[in-house]
Amino acid sequence: MRKILFAIIFLVITPLLFAQQSLNNDAVIKLVKGGLSDDLIISTINAQAGNYDTSPDALIALKAAGVSDNVVAAIVQKAATAPPDPDDPAAAHDAGIYVYNEKATDHKMTMLEPTLYDQEKVQGVAATIFTMGLAVGKIKTISSVRNAHANVRVTDPNAVFYFYFERLNAGLSDASGLFGGTSTPNEYSLLRLNVKQDSREVVTSSGFSGGTDRKANVPFTYTKLQSGIYKVTPNAPLKPGEYAFVLPAGTVGASHVFDFGVN
Q1: Global pTM exceeds 0.85
Q2: Which tens digit of pLDDT belongs to each residue from 214-224?
């Protein structure tokens, strides 16, 4: 009777003990070293969300720590049937750009919802001099995004970004899809936007080069993790302000803006 009562109490308080984090290999080892029975530990594994490492080395480490075969088998089965963690960069994600705080205790992947330029205006036409049919001067196309601030807010200036493309091979993404035919972060620019009263602006084309405003450009590096998945890291901590990943003017998908703000 006492064993049954203990089992009931344990199953009631266990969700509270692990409500703040998913179970993992280390948590299971703690339960084993705490003297809990295999049945109770397996019940806990089945009842709680888990983030388990089932690599060969991790399984050997579990056995070395005294975890029974039955518990190890429960861990393997749970890991195989558990849905992918939406906040794990290594898990499958819908195509898009996500911001991720690596150093926070509460890791979270947040998708940058694409928006469109609200309007465009051209500056410098009147001041441009035409010589032999060529324009000599600085004509700028200024594109604006509605609202002064992006919906997605970032509190970590050292946050990183993950690109998940629809197609896996360079140059083969669906031109009608979210990324407009692109398949690498190298085709994008990270720009800091100028905040106006009810909008944000950026120079999307300047002079003959058609490039973005160099002063607004934020350098970044990227690493290919696997086909279609890249990790993008700004070269320096992001200062408070409004930002967006954009494509060069004139390319397919250039009207899409992946915006965010840094508090």
Answers
A1: no
A2: 788 999 999 99
